[in-house]
Amino acid sequence: MRIAVWQARGPDAEAVRLEAATARAAAAGADVVVTPELFATGYGAPFAGPDPALLPRLQEIAAAHRITVVASEPHDGHITAVAIDADGTLAGRYRKTHLWGDDERAAFTPGDGTPLIVGIGGLRCAVIICYDVEFPEVVRGLALAGARVVLAPTALDDEAVARVLVPARAMENRLALAYANQIGPGFCGASVIAGPDGRELTRAGADTEELLIADVTTDDLERARARGDYLADRRPETYQW
Q1: Which region is the signal sequence (predicted)?
Q2: Does 125 participate in catalysis according to the annotation?
């Protein structure tokens, strides 16, 4: 599959810049485009409320360009990410499980961890949001559930997470991980698509709006597991303590 990650400056209230980025991603043959966390409303306290016009707009964009869109928005008291199929159908909604800091905890309710796994480009793809990736149990659980790609909208100011933890999560679970960050004051950019061997397939700068594109194939995933299959080699009976 071909993955597009849109690193952008929020807000993009009417998804005008997202549509332009989506058109470029589709023209490049991408199967999916991933936005930053809360890209349309902007990330930061006081957090904006949900925009009832955003989901129909996202569905319109996905259908017009025949590409899956994974986009983050506030919804029903949660930070969420939706996956919208290339025909404009809402495939599912994920609610952020791990909230970051007092501002998020004051404004939102954490999700219960129910995963969102959808088929994109012939691969099983899971959706998480930002801080979730910093908990190894989250990505490991998705890998054990059969996910081969993880798509993560984020709004991050700690470049070490993007440069260290994200490739590590990909490598230790032998999956690809696409991480779409915001830019501007309070954000570090450095969006990345990491392959199943932990190698950076493409990386964005610190303060530029960019569209990253990279390919991940079943062969890539199988070659990584052939080098060392952490999932198969686990000994969970020894972890009980």
Answers
A1: none
A2: no
- Residue among 19, 104, 125, 130 flagged as catalytic: 130
* Predicted model pTM: 0.98
pLDDT of residue 186: 96
Q: How many whole angstroms separate alpha carbon 65 and alpha carbon 18?
A: 12
CB neighbours of 19 closer than 8 A, spacing ≥ 6? 61, 64, 65
Dihedral sign (CA 163, 109, 6, 152): positive
> Do the beta carbons of residue 195 and residue 201 sit within 8 Å?
yes
Catalytic residue among 19, 73, 96, 104: 96
pLDDT class for 135, splitting at 50, 70, 90? very high
Catalytic site includes residue 188 = no
Q: Which CATH code of 3.60.150.10, 3.60.110.10, 3.30.2320.30, 3.30.1330.10 fits the domain covering 2-227?
A: 3.60.110.10
Q: Give the C-alpha distances (Å, rounded to integers) separating 202 from 7, 36, 72, 88.
A: 12, 16, 22, 28
CB 118 within 8 A of CB 125: yes
The whole-angstrom separation of Cα 211 and Cα 217 is 20
